[in-house]
Amino acid sequence: MTEFFLAINNWPLLLAQEAGGGGAGAGGGVLDGLFGSMMLPLLLTMVLMYFLLMRPEQKKRKDMERLLANIKKNDHVVTVGGICGTVVAASPDSKVVTVRIDDSNGTKVRVLRSAISQVGSPEEAAAEAKAAE
């Protein structure tokens, strides 16, 4: 145990010895070795995280934006709150969509495009999810 503490206390001295005594011709020594050997795995990890986490999320967001921009009359939609309905009026430049939620008495609700979680009835979404598995 005492050898461990001696090694920790002499760490700067060990680095200086590994670096070649600090002479003008020293090639960088331990610090270049540490950064050179750690940089490659770090970069590989960052690239892997990008392709496994960030890129699929960006693609999913772009697909949803495209889907919301193409909403038209008579599309079945489900809102974030779970309200199912049929689009009655959807202007391409408007942020608001009018959705009919009850056919018997014609109840309509205006919702933001961003509040629509899926286009298509819940049954269609369940069938697509089952087919994808």
Provide a short characterization of the protein structure.
By secondary structure, this protein is α+β, with helices and mostly antiparallel strands.
How would you explain this protein's 3D organization?
This protein has 4 helices and 5 strands, in the order H-H-H-E-E-E-E-E-H. The chain is α+β, with helices and mostly antiparallel strands and 133 residues long. The protein has 2 domains: 27-69; 71-132, SH3 type barrels (Roll). The longest helix has 40 residues, at 30-69.
Summarize the topology.
Elements: H1 2-9, H2 11-18, H3 30-69, E1 76-79, E2 84-90, E3 96-102, E4 107-112, E5 116-119, H4 122-132
Antiparallel strand pairs: 1-2, 1-5, 2-3, 3-4
- Number of folding domains? 2
Describe the largest sheet.
Answer: 5 strands, antiparallel
- Oligomeric state of the chains present here: single chain
For the record, what CATH class of the largest domain applies?
Mainly Beta
Helix content: 40-55%
The main sheet orders its strands as 4-3-2-1-5
Cα radius of gyration in angstroms: 30 Å
